[in-house]
């Protein structure tokens, strides 16, 4: 089972160049996401886990933390050091941290 990280721990990892995977749908992602986050909708995670590194942490984020827990658990079962971000993108935005808008993304 994957661990959950606080917004503060995630912000530090993000600032240090941590890999962020957003498991929301494309329209949600386009409406606002953590800068640099890679889009990998939850429904695609089982087929796409092999695209993720196993030698560094992966921070998984969604809107509020529910989908990211599910995705991080799936990733962890495949040997990925995955962490679900507590509070998701909603908490990130509400804390005043940067949000990118639009559909340009880093494909995961």
From TrEMBL:
It comes from the Bacteria. Coiled coil: none annotated. InterPro entries: GlpE_sulfurtransferase, Rhodanese-like_dom, Rhodanese-like_dom_sf. Residues 16-101 form the Rhodanese domain. It comes from Streptomyces humidus. This is Rhodanese domain-containing protein.
């Amino acid at each position: 089972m994957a661990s959950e990280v606080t917004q503060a721990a995630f912000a530090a990892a993000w600032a240090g160049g941590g890999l962020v995977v957003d498991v929301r749908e494309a329209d949600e992602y386009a409406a606002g996401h953590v800068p640099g986050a890679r889009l990998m909708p939850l429904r695609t995670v089982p087929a796409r886990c092999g695209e993720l590194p196993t030698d560094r942490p992966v921070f998984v984020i969604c809107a509020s933390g529910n989908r990211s827990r599910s995705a991080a658990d799936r990733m962890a079962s495949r040997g990925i050091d995955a962490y679900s971000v507590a509070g998701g993108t909603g908490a990130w935005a509400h804390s005043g941290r940067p949000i990118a808008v639009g559909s340009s993304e880093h494909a995961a």
